[in-house]
Amino acid sequence: MTTFWIVLTVVVAAWVLARLVVALRSDGLGSAQPPASHADWSDAASDLPSHPYRSA
Q: Residue 36 domain-assigned?
């Protein structure tokens, strides 16, 4: 009877893992680029110095 429970546990674990993979793939996790929350940093876009603590 112990073998039955071990086999049943392995089958259920494989089914749950397969469902998780299908859910993650259909969600697009890792395949879509996130939207930019702000413009890329550029020294030309602001008056900030590139090296604020460097003395001349």
A: no
- Put simply, whether the predicted model's pTM sits higher than 0.70 gets the answer no
How far apart, in Å, are the Cα atoms of 50 and each of 5, 39, 40, 46? 64, 17, 15, 10
Written as six digits, the tokens of 24 are 């993650």
* pLDDT tens profile 14-42: 999 999 988 887 776 656 676 767 666 65
Number of folded domains that form the chain: 1
Which residue range is the domain that position 14 belongs to?
1-25
CA–CA dist 39, 56 (Å, integer): 30
3's enclosing H/E stretch is helix 2-27
